Amino acid sequence: MRIYKTLVFLLCMAGLLLGMSGKALADNWMRSEGESYYKAGAEYDTAQNRWNQDNDSIKMSCTAKNWKLTQAYEYGMSYYQTFFGSIDYRDRSCGNNEASGIGDLSLGIRRRLDIYRNGRTWEAAVIIPTGYSTKGTAQIGSGLYGLRLGAFGSFGDKTLTGGEYGSNVELGANIYIWEGTASEELSGYIKYNFAATQESHFYAALEGDYALIDRNKNLTTVAVNQVSDYGYDRLNVRFGYSRRATLYWRVAVEVTDVVWGRNTNDSRSVTINFSRNFLD
Q1: Class of 2-279 in CATH
Q2: Short-list 219, 149, 218, CA closest to 185
Q3: Domain residue ranges of the chain, discontinuous segments joined by +
Q4: pLDDT at 220
């Protein structure tokens, strides 16, 4: 029976991934009761081209330079549920045009799909816009209230936690539902993890976003620099390296490249994340 459930779950996840070409990789881990998890990240991306409505990469009139600082927190309420939240600060510029401010606030709950094994979960989150640019009228983040529903799975003979050797594969899919007439968005990813040592591991991921409707809408822009978080298609690859830096802290460095898109920047980014766990 457990094998049958795993096969059904894999087929469902594969179907969702084939239906789109991700937003940033989500975590799929359940926290222990009383366990807290904190992550702080900084991301820089730049682009000189953008993918137009016909998915052609064309030259922009300026170079996009975007910063994002993220704070995320999770807390294990019980064996069966974990609460989480995140918020970010963004600065987007292109030539003489700039917008900056606090992005979306995301609050949600994660629960188990498999009560016997960690890493196979579903979650629901509300997305709350917190404000607009401190330097203009452009929206930072989505600018809309939204709902995200997601399911995730980790498959392999090692969990890659606690310094174990081995490898695994992760699958994830989300649907974003926005207020008003904004396009609903599918996002998904497939990720391979390999633990090189007891303290470090490498990973590679293929991520996609796909707007279900209204895919030819004009971008909400700062000049030609995308600000809108919906109404676009995108496929990107991500490579990362994670290592335990101290007894409590872990650091991860990632590079990402957009390889195909529509209504989105043809960008490359570098991200660094610091994370740690706490117990009550």
Answers
A1: mainly beta
A2: 149
A3: 2-279
A4: 45
